[in-house]
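All the exercises in this workshop are built on plain-text protein records. A record pairs a protein's sequence with a compact description of its fold. Read left to right, the backbone structure tokens trace the chain's path through space. Once this layout is familiar, the rest of the handout is easier to follow. Here is such a record, shown just as it appears in the course material:
>
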Amino acid sequence: MTKIEQLYNSIQTLKELGVQLPQGLIEETNRVEEEIIKNDIIPALAETISPIIEQIQRGIILVVEYVPNEPLTVKLTRKRSFAIPEEQDINDVGIEKKEVIIKEKKDEISKPHRKVYPKRNKLDRSLPQIEDLIIPTVKALKQLGGIGNLHEIDKKVLEIEQFPTELTEIMHKTNNVGAKPQTEISYRLAWAKTYLKEYGIIENPSRGIWKLSSENIDEKEINPSDISQHFKTK
């Protein structure tokens, strides 16, 4: 058994026993997880792919996207052209806005994909809005011990809210070519997490992992309208 498997198994055992994980333990777990990824997994990955990558005769930047229980994807997000100076070479696919520092290119950077809600029929209009999913998301994280991955949180929200099957099966409609299929509720839950993160109630310490910023958060004191307004006016 690898180190990271041992770590996850230990946390899962505590959860199954009903142990409420203290904030200090959650933070230490995240630190250990990141150390294992940096010191063990990434070097092993680099050693494996080096013989293939070395065939390429220019500098490139790749993003490896891994979500548990889904196929691994590797995307080319930036390549350095022979003809264009490096400081002018930019391809913003998959790069966060804070990494884009070339002012001359600001107008060329596409805006992030925003909300698209299908409203074709009465059933679609019955779907919960983002604000409706803010409190359930906090409740789900509390029931998971303060931390959970994307799939655990969404599954727990569905258990808490008991949405009818006809709503949970509605798929999100998007014009993004190559986007992974997802339900409309999962799409809106993703935005609910983002709203909560911007407001400081939850954190995203690593890809696909979300946790409460404090173990003393009381969902009864949370106003979803305030959180939504904060996000929309930031």
